[in-house]
Model the fold of this input.
Amino acid sequence: MATTFSSVDKSSDLVKDYCCGACKSRSIEEIAEIYCETCLKCFCGKCIYHHSQLYADHITYGRGDINKWPITKKMEDFLYKCEIHKDKKLKMFCKDHSQPCCTNCAFLNHRLCKEVTLISESRKTNLSDLHELSYKIKTILKELKNLHNTKQTIFQAVEGSYSKRLQEVRDVRQKINSALDKLEMATLKELDDVRTSLQADLKTDVENYNKLMDDLELLSEAVQELADRRIGEMAFIASRKCLDKIKESQVYLKKTSLKFDNSIASKANTDIEQYLNKQFGIGKILHRAVQGNANHPFTVTKKCEYDLKIPTDGRYS
Ligand SMILES: [Zn+2]
Ligand SMILES: [Zn+2]
Ligand SMILES: [Zn+2]
Ligand SMILES: [Zn+2]
Done:
């Protein structure tokens, strides 16, 4: 959600809204520079030149004498417009309610009021009253602008603290990631060590097997050849070796069959996952409540610290 604090300055539109009457008759919108009191018309820089050539004796006023210019149509509409009945003009004044009203308002809301008169008949406003009102409005505008500026500062402070907290959350997350990476590395190293050790055992086993097979095959051939030739001394050695190898083979068979279940087993540490599932967040976000009054526009009434550390006892402090 994007919120912006742009300054709105619509009041100037009402003053700027003087258009050249001559240009307007040719459907051109041009800002007026001069007001002719004799013609009761405004003119732009180009048109006033022609006007002056034709009517040298007319009384004219530039932007510097704007108070001599008439009230703009836009300003007039703004002042006369009834807030409730937008297409109606404020023409009456109810003294009972001390309120200007349009004919609709007078009919709907002031029928029973004792003194409802036409404004043109009864109302005269003192010039000094208007000056005082103008001063009051300017003071209020200044106060509102100051308040607006303060809010803008607060808005920026919120954005600033938001960015800081966001970074803190990400830092905590990064730390958890690093801690988990470390645990994963330790477990993987253990797994690798077990695998290396088991493979070394199996490699020795295969070497022993190959040697035994070679020896047994050679002895088998030797025994067959010697059986026909009856060579006493060699037959004795061969039979001795056969007995030894048979014994060795039997021991090997017995030992190897015991070692058949050599798969790697593991037991997952579910404590970490269970612990994380029990948590409500990576940190606890709190905000400062501020309240304003006339003397101290914004006073901190409640202040809470942010705590984004990983709790050590399963709870946030
Ligand atoms: Zn013009
Ligand atoms: Zn004129
Ligand atoms: Zn009305
Ligand atoms: Zn009334």
In short: The chain has four domains: 14-80, 82-124, 127-260, 269-317. The two ends are 32 Å apart (CA to CA). Residues 1-15, 310-317 have pLDDT under 50 and may be disordered. The first strand starts at residue 34 and ends at 36.
